[in-house]
């Protein structure tokens, strides 16, 4: 299950980071620091999301 979660994280983490970055840009946060924090938040949120999805696929 760990291997599946890591493969899913590669896709989910980058997708969420991109979504969070677009949301930050849409809210008018167009400097580097908010965009970087949005990307970090997307990657951090991607970890538990990929773990839950991997558990649901293996169930």
Keywords for this structure?
mainly alpha; single chain; 59 residues
Task: Give structural notes.
The protein is mainly α and 59 residues long. It is 88% helix and 0% strand. Helix 1 runs antiparallel to helix 2. It is elongated, with a radius of gyration of 13 Å. The mean pLDDT is 96.
Query: What are the segments in which pLDDT stays under 50 over at least 5 consecutive residues?
Result: none
Instruction: Give the helices and strands as they follow along the chain.
Output: HH
Global structural class:
mainly alpha
Taken as a percent bin, the fraction of beta residues is under 5%
Q: Mean pLDDT across all residues, rounded? A: 96
Major beta sheet summary: none
How far is the N terminus from the C terminus? 10 Å
- Number of E-type strands: 0
The number of distinct helices, counting runs of at least 4 residues, comes to: 2
- From the spread of the alpha carbons, the general shape counts as elongated
Q: Taking Cα atoms only, what radius of gyration do you get, to the nearest Å? A: 13 Å
Oligomer category: single chain
Helix content: over 70%
